[in-house]
Amino acid sequence: MDITSDSNAAPLDPKAANRARFELELEFVQALANPFYLHSLAQQNILEQPAFINFLQYLLYFKEKDYARFIHYPHALHHLELLQHAQFRSQMKKDEFLREYLHQKQFDHWRTWREPTSVNATNPEGMVPEEPEAETKPAL
């Protein structure tokens, strides 16, 4: 049974509150993988707000190994890193070419990406190895 101070308040359990906060932050970071979302944030002047810039800096903890494992869209971390730079944030606002460039790079990545389990270290092309030719031994 959840105990709350009123019907609209968050649960008093700190563990549940931390989990909910983490899930919201994770969802937001993953949304950063979308170049069109980044452009929308820029057009609304959100990327210029000091509080938002501080929040982006805070979210860099997702680059740590323990947290990065929850990220499903690796471009999110790349875009989060780019958003740390004022020049990128300002370019995102005024340059639709940048949005299209990021979108194309992302598309190219997903188009050529392969399942890691289907590619092994000895066969980087992911092809089925040919059977070795049978050696013929001289009859004794």
Automatic annotation (TrEMBL):
Leader sequence residues: none
Gene Ontology MF, one: transcription coregulator activity
Keywords: Activator, Nucleus, Transcription, Transcription regulation
Subcellular location(s) of the protein: Nucleus
Keyword Membrane assigned: no
Region (Disordered): 118-140
Keyword Cytoplasm among UniProt keywords: no
Cellular component, GO annotation: mediator complex
BP GO annotations: regulation of DNA-templated transcription
Homology family: Belongs to the Mediator complex subunit 31 family.
PANTHER family for this protein: MEDIATOR OF RNA POLYMERASE II TRANSCRIPTION SUBUNIT 31
Biological role: Component of the Mediator complex, a coactivator involved in the regulated transcription of nearly all RNA polymerase II-dependent genes. Mediator functions as a bridge to convey information from gene-specific regulatory proteins to the basal RNA polymerase II transcription machinery. Mediator is recruited to promoters by direct interactions with regulatory proteins and serves as a scaffold for the assembly of a functional preinitiation complex with RNA polymerase II and the general transcription factors.
Subunit structure, interactors included: Component of the Mediator complex.
Protein name: Mediator of RNA polymerase II transcription subunit 31
Species of origin: Psilocybe cubensis
Taxonomic lineage from the root: Eukaryota, Fungi, Dikarya, Basidiomycota, Agaricomycotina
